[in-house]
Each structure stands twice: as structure tokens, then as C-alpha cells.
Design brief:
- The protein is an alpha+beta fold.
- It has one domain (about 1-45).
- It has one helix and two strands.
- Strands 1-2 form a two-stranded antiparallel ribbon.
- The mean pLDDT is about 85.
Length: about 45
């Protein structure tokens, strides 16, 4: 597994260090966290 991951290091570094200044990204990413809590005998979001 470490050899496989080691082979990916160059690709990951190129992706991580790519320039972003002249590129437009028309996507919006949203994230949400739902926490469950006990309300009396019920568990609700």
C-alpha cells in the first residue's frame, strides 16, 4: 500500500500546487451537519 501511495505523491502535489488565479469555477459546494438529540422519549434531528 505504501508503494502505491508513494507513486501518487507527484500527482497529488501537482494537483495541490496548481495555479487557481485564472480559472473560473461555476460550482457551489454546500455542506450541512445534522445532529441528533433526544427530546423526551424521541430522537430528533
Amino acid at each position: 500500500m505504501s508503494r502505491i501511495c508513494g507513486n501518487l505523491d507527484e500527482d497529488v502535489a501537482a494537483f495541490r500546487d496548481r495555479p487557481l488565479a485564472d480559472t473560473t469555477y461555476p460550482h457551489v459546494f454546500l455542506d450541512a451537519t445534522y445532529c441528533k438529540a433526544r427530546a423526551g422519549p424521541r430522537v430528533v434531528s
